[in-house]
């Protein structure tokens, strides 16, 4: 699957949520739609919006409609927007999907592009099952640009206490990842604001 990730800064987050709720059906009606989710930092005026698609063709086919919605959105809630496209190489969601006011920990990483397939397999087969078995983890997502090795891992927790309890295990996973040549960068703690998953 493939994901379009929007980073919006200087945004009125409270105005963005009802806009997404009102326009979600338009996005969900596009061919190949799988998921729409948003998270943000209200005090910092930051908003992340992700849409997930069955294929790159489906993602690209939705460009015209979503580009119009992006312009409409900026008019409604302001800010400056950057758009990135990644491959979604791993995704796990628990019996209770994330919903407001869950917490998202999002971290950027850079992997050796010659070891991308190897590290994806390691994440899927070893890390993801362990993470999803952790009490309070609602969902885990791994996105990557195979050409550059740049990626994002997002982990959604029930609450702050759950995130803190899971920290020792997360530290061990990051150490193991560094041993595999993965470098970690910026980290954000965001509030889950909205989510919709296709049921078809």
Taken as a percent bin, the fraction of beta residues is 35-45%
Class from helix and strand fractions: alpha+beta
- CATH level-1 class: Alpha Beta
The order of strands across the largest sheet is: 1-3-2-8-5-7-6-4
* Portion in helices: 25-40%
- Summed up, the domain count is 1
How would you name the oligomeric state of the polypeptide chains in this document?
Answer: single chain
- Second-tier CATH architecture: 2-Layer Sandwich
The low-confidence parts are none
| SSE series | EHEEHHEEHEEHHE
Explain this structure to me?
The chain has about 200 residues and is α+β, with helices and mostly antiparallel strands. It has one domain (about 1-195): Alpha-Beta Plaits, CATH 3.30.70. Helix content is about 35%, strand content about 40%. An eight-stranded antiparallel β-barrel has the order 1-3-2-8-5-7-6-4. A hairpin with a 5-residue loop joins β6 and β7. The chain is globular, with a radius of gyration of 16 Å. It starts with a strand and ends with a strand. The model has no long low-confidence stretch (mean pLDDT about 95).
């Amino acid at each position: 699957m493939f994901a379009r990730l929007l980073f919006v800064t200087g945004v009125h987050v409270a105005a963005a949520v009802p806009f997404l709720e009102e326009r979600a059906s338009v996005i969900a009606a596009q061919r190949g739609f799988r998921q729409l989710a948003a998270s943000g930092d209200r005090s910092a005026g930051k908003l992340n919006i992700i849409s997930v698609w069955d294929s790159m063709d489906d993602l690209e086919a939705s460009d015209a409609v979503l580009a119009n919605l992006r312009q409409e959105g900026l008019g409604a809630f302001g800010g400056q927007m950057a758009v990135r496209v990644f491959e979604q190489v791993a995704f796990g969601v628990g019996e209770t999907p994330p919903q407001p006011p869950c917490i998202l920990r999002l971290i950027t990483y850079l992997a050796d592009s010659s070891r991308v397939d190897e590290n994806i397999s390691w994440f899927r087969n070893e890390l993801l099952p362990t993470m999803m078995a952790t009490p309070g983890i609602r969902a885990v997502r791994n996105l990557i640009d195979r050409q550059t090795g740049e990626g994002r891992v997002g982990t959604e927790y029930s609450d702050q206490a759950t995130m803190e309890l899971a920290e020792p295990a997360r530290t061990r996973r990051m150490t193991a990842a560094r041993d595999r040549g993965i470098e970690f960068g910026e980290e954000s703690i965001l509030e889950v604001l909205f989510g919709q998953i296709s049921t078809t």
